[in-house]
Amino acid sequence: MGSDQLDAVFSALADPTRRAILARLSQGDAGVMELAEPFVISQPAVSKHLKVLEGAGLIRRERRGQARLSRLEPGPLGEAAAWMERYRAFWEASFDRLDALLDELRQADAESKGTIP
Q1: Which of 13, 53, 107, 113 is buried deepest, with most CB atoms within 10 A?
Q2: DSSP-based three-state secondary structure for 31
Q3: pTM
Q4: Is 79 left (phi over 0), alpha (psi -120 to 50) or beta?
Q5: What is the DSSP letter of 15?
Q6: Averaged pLDDT, 77-91
Q7: What CATH architecture applies to the domain 3-74?
Q8: Under 8 Å CB-to-CB from 33, ≥6 apart: which residues?
């Protein structure tokens, strides 16, 4: 995934309405009216959210008869998760070092007070 598409995915995911739409689409395809139901926003506003999601590659829209349904495209989510996963090891190592430092500080504090655990 290129930097521009990764930016588009994270930008799309930054909005709670778009995340809710993706959560709904994870249960199956849906039309705009169905996707608009739980929100206190207009159908055109939902359509704008769908365009952002489509532009990020997170959904695909297709006509089925009279209906225009949206479908979740999980690939970009997986690629964004893989990008974040690379940093998980960094943060885990950082937290491990912080834990070790805190243990050392507790030990030094206990020794200075004469209350070695």
Answers
A1: 53
A2: strand
A3: 0.76
A4: alpha
A5: S
A6: 90
A7: Orthogonal Bundle (1.10)
A8: 43
- DSSP string over 35-64: HHTTSSS-HHHHHHHHHHHHHTTSEEEEEE
Task: Give the Cβ contact number of residue 82 at 10 Å.
Answer: 10
* 46-81: pLDDT as tens digits: 999 999 999 999 999 999 888 899 999 999 999 999
30: enclosing H helix or E strand: strand 30-31
Query: pLDDT for 21-40, tens place per residue?
Result: 999 999 999 999 999 999 99
Q: What angle do CA 5, 70, 10 make, to 5 degrees?
A: 25
Q: Torsion-angle region of residue 65: left (phi > 0), alpha (psi -120 to 50) or beta? A: left
Record the tokens describing residue 115, joined without a space.
């209350």
**Where along the chain do its domains lie?**
3-74
Q: What are the structure tokens assigned to 91, written together?
A: 């943060």
